Amino acid sequence: MITRIKRKINTFRSIKYKSFNLPITRTNQGLNDNENYLNSSKEQIDHLVSLNLINENSKVLDFGSGQGRLVNGLKFADVKVKEYTGVDTDLNSIKWCNRFLSHYNQNLNFIHLPAFNARYNKSANGLLEIPVENEKYDLVFLNSVFSHMMSNDVEFYLKEFNRIITKNGTVYLTAFTEENVPNVEENPINYLNETNKNGSLHRVRFEVNYFNDLIKKSGLKTEHYFHQYIDRSKQSVFVLKKT
Question: What is the reported pLDDT for 30?
């Protein structure tokens, strides 16, 4: 009971660090240090900028937005976008973002998507379409989301991303992918020197060619692939376009 109360209170409090509101209890693994938390986001934003995937005219959908790490990163990197929409299955994260981040910019919007996930939302029933219009977003960004989903879920949401990005839009995602491993494996033992003691869907790994087949089925194609590009998690980065 004490743990539950503490967790609930932390959901509705923030740490004031410089000019940023940061979460106290963080869902991002290994990012308890405030500067590291901000820099982890800035590094990915710098990558987006270097690939010419984001600018002041971009409409961005952050899928699995959590506690708004990308929003704080945009502010930290001083990168402005035309519109930002964060989507997450965890209601408390959405409430936290609306309370502590929405005042950053009038073009910020956070949406709760009560879809099922065996790790983050067990009480929900099934997958849900993202409640946004077709061909609206220039960029769909998702960090460490498919690392907690099995194949059917990944395929469903890839098709959703294809629906909501513009003709020249982009999907930037991270996932655990390797060559010459089983097509999909939940919590592979000793992968990246970690034991399987962290619950359902802690780490889902895909065989890279199999993962690319899922991408092709959705009507998207891989334009860039960066193996284990995210240094702290060793997740790979995929940059996808419409076929």
Answer: 67
- Residue 98: the pLDDT is 95
Residue 198 burial (CB count, 10 A): 12
- Quick one: CA torsion of 97, 80, 59, 223, rounded to 10 degrees? -110
> How far does CA 214 lie from the centroid of its chain?
18
Q: What type of residue is 159?
A: K
Q: Which residue, chain included where needed, has tokens 């973002």?
A: 97
The two three-digit tokens of residue 81, written as one number: 């976008």
Question: Residue 135 and residue 119: Cα distance in Å, rounded?
Answer: 30
Rounded Cα–Cα distance for residues 54 and 177 (Å):
25
Q: What are phi and psi of 120, to 5 degrees?
A: -110, -20
Q: Quick: pLDDT tens for 70-129.
A: 999 999 999 999 999 999 999 999 999 999 999 998 899 999 999 988 888 888 888 999
Check whether 222 has a pLDDT greater than 70. yes
How far from the centroid of its chain's Cα atoms is residue 41's Cα? 11
d(CA 236, CA 71): 22
Structure tokens at 204: 């889902």
For Cα atoms 155, 55, 212, give the angle at the middle one, nearest 5 degrees: 20
Both tokens of residue 8?
A: 């609930």
CATH number (3.40.640.10, 3.40.605.10, 1.20.120.1630, 3.40.50.150) of 2-242 reads 3.40.50.150
**Rounded Cα–Cα distance for residues 91 and 180 (Å):** 38
